[in-house]
Amino acid sequence: MAASVLRLYEGLPASYEGPSPSRRPMPAPPEFRPPENATPEKVEEARKRHEARLAQKPPANDARVRHIELIGPYAQTEGPSPESLKKVYACGHLAGGHGPACARTILTSLARRAYRRPVTPADLEPLLRLAAASVKRGESFEQGIALALRAMLVSPDFLFRIERGQAAAPGNPVQRLRPYALASRLSYFLWASMPDEELFRCAGQGTLRDPAVLGAQVRRMLKDPRSRALVEAFGGQWLQFRALESVTPDRERFPAFENNLRFSMRRESELFLASVIQERLARPYGIPGVKGQQFRRVDLSGTPRGGVLTEGSVLTVSSYSTRTSPVLRGKWVLDNLLAAPPPAPPAGVPRLDESTVGVDRSLRQQLEAHRSNATCAACHVRMDPLGFGLENFDAVGAWRTEDGKFPVDATGALPDGRKFSGPEELRAILRQDKDAFTRALTEKLLTYALGRGLERYDRRTIKAIAQRVAERDYRFSVLVMEIVQSLPFQMRKGDGGPS
Ligand SMILES: [Zn+2]
Fold first, then answer.
1. At 71, is the pLDDT very low, low, confident or very high (cuts 50, 70, 90)?
2. 142 C-alpha vs ligand 1 centroid, how far in Å?
3. How far is the CA of 203 from the centre of ligand 1 (A)?
4. Which DSSP string corresponds to 219-259?
5. How do 411-413 and 406-407 pair as beta strands?
6. From the CA of 145, how far away is ligand 1's center (Å)?
7. Cβ contacts of residue 24 below 8 Å, gap of 6+?
8. What is this structure's pTM?
9. For position 292, what pLDDT does the model report?
10. Rg for the chain (alpha carbons), in Å?
11. Span from the CA of 131 to the centroid of ligand 1 (angstroms)
């Protein structure tokens, strides 16, 4: 919770965005200087004292808030809202006065939404019995409905997405998904939520498999604000910005990394992905409720940054807490951008001696020594150069030209002989691998859409989809449409077949 009093903002440094900002530059906060030759415990104590002093420091205009009083809410509404009553009491008797058919009407409508499909008598009977038994015990009609609703909410049909296929031809283990299961797959893919009334309607009419109808639904769903879930959930997996929440870069080495930066990094990645998904570029974005701190797409032309590869979130999650890792970053690029993940390292390989990194030899020299081992070299020759091309970004993504006492050497050569120097040239090389990138994105998105790992037999699908996406100008909507119309998305393995 935050409260602001306008007057306090007057005369503050311009970064506060208050009225009549001060023209004096903001004084830099005192630096933390660890006592010399102190033990780690003593340094830790000194840092704690330093932070306590910083917290004590009053804001720039010497104003402090002694206390804030919050009063209210004055007219708090109690009980269910009219909207939820309408959703529950499908019979229309919002104020009570139900008839004998009401329980069936209400529970049919609720179960259809909860199970995301039409309900059968076998679904309904136990629910009706529960409601009736409750009334028989002397409870109210509403309490009876509440009990049946609780039963629905613990039912596997609600908790799991149970996909039922249509009868398959004899000997064919693959079945077409039933229309309601297809509607659910589609809405959990694009919205991470249940189908809405319109999707239910298409499923009910049996038209969802018609490519024209399916195409129109996909376009409608991508335009809907609910497709934000695709950015958050898929992006969180693909670009791993969810991992940002748990990274803790070493505080001594990266004092600038705090939660605000963590938040901005994640936001940067989300906005980038949102612009890709909605096929809108350079559109100004605002975070609702965070006035004055709007995130704008910074024009980075002419600078070494651009695209996912140089985003702070990616550079941070592919680093260790104390230093960058060209190996991790190279692996990240191979896996997420080039669809060519390296195998796991063989057992018994000696790890880098962390205590000597950057002391008597640079990280590059140490990794080169590591590569002299032939077993290691096969993979590292693919991973390391990609990571070294990004060495100008430190473990929290900030630009640097030196790593400790060693100048950064961001040159490298790929196994096919292409040479580069620095992130910009590396990016130019990777951009030539458009098809590898398209395949990588197809694999990641198909995995997400199906909710399962990909198998050998999916390879043909991936190749065909990537091909068609390339033919149609690498548009994200084409990629989604191709996935939705693909065999793995439209079919499932039959109950009797091998799984
Ligand atoms: Zn009623």
1. confident
2. 10
3. 28
4. HHHHHSGGGHHIIIIIHHHHS-TTGGGT----TTT-TT--H
5. unpaired
6. 11
7. 13
8. 0.72
9. 29
10. 29
11. 14
pLDDT digits (tens, 9 = 90+) for 329-379: 888 888 888 888 888 777 776 666 666 666 667 777 777 777 777 777 777
Q: Which of 321, 315, 329 is nearest to 384 (CA)?
A: 329
Q: How far is the CA of 107 from the centre of ligand 1 (A)?
A: 11
- The per-residue pLDDT for 7 is 59
Burial annotation 119-131 (CB, 10 A radius, 16+ → b, else e): beeebbeebbebb
DSSP state of 283: -
What distance in Å separates the CA atoms of residue 51 and residue 49, rounded to the nearest whole number? 5
Distance 79 CA to ligand 1 centre (A): 19
**Residue 288 β-bridge partners:** none
231 contacts: CB under 8 Å, gap ≥ 6:
270, 273, 274, 277
Q: Which of 440, 349, 342 is nearest to 385 (CA)?
A: 342
Q: What does the alpha-carbon distance between residue 249 and residue 257 come to, in Å, rounded to a whole number?
A: 7
State the Cα–Cα distance between residues 236 and 308, nearest whole angstrom: 13
- Give yes or no for a cis peptide into 173 (omega within 30° of 0): no
Span from the CA of 104 to the centroid of ligand 1 (angstroms): 9
Mean pLDDT of the chain: 80
pLDDT tens digits along 458-479: 999 999 999 998 888 788 888 9
CB 228 within 8 A of CB 491: no
Residues 296, 252 contacting (CB under 8 angstroms): no
What pLDDT does 310 receive?
74
